[in-house]
Design goal:
With about 150 residues, the protein is an alpha+beta fold. It is built from three helices and six strands, in the order H-E-H-E-E-E-E-E-H. The longest helix has 20 residues.
């Protein structure tokens, strides 16, 4: 289970609605665990668009997901209004740490929590590189001071 101290430290300044599709469902009519990864991907993309104040150009984006942990607390189904909340809580030299959660917008029930590491990558050399100043400043302007914990 993810650390309560971390959850309490994060202010989720970014929230975006996600669409649950019939194809996301498992035999129990719950959103499949793998499909929930896609919902977090969508939330991450929207977060970076908000922080960078522009659409993402996927041919030049130099941030990649390198690690993810997920805790499935309660089932997600198609009749719920699900939102993805996102917070970056630490920025290092070459990577940053993000926490996200899927929440039922109607009753604020947390369904799933994800904690991940995102690294900056040199696309030509396929190696890690320091996070750009633009990225660092954009996220710090969006989130505030780091680390949060």
């Amino acid at each position: 289970m993810l650390d309560d101290k971390l959850m309490n430290a994060c202010v989720f300044k970014h929230r975006t609605g996600v669409q649950v599709r019939i194809s996301d469902l498992d035999p129990f009519a719950h959103v499949n665990n793998g499909s929930q990864c896609h919902l977090f991907d969508y939330g991450r993309s929207k977060y970076f668009e908000a922080a960078f104040k522009s659409k993402i150009n996927w041919t030049t984006m130099d941030l990649v997901l390198v690690h993810i942990d997920m805790d499935f607390l309660l089932p997600v189904n198609t009749i719920q209004n699900i939102i993805c909340e996102t917070c970056i809580y630490e920025i290092g030299n070459k990577s940053m740490k993000m926490i996200q959660r899927l929440v039922d917008e109607d009753d604020a029930t947390i369904k799933t929590i994800s904690k991940c590491v995102i690294a900056s990558i040199d696309r030509e050399k396929n190696v890690s590189k320091p996070i750009s100043e633009f990225c660092r400043k954009s996220i710090q302007d969006f989130e505030g001071d780091f680390p949060l914990i």
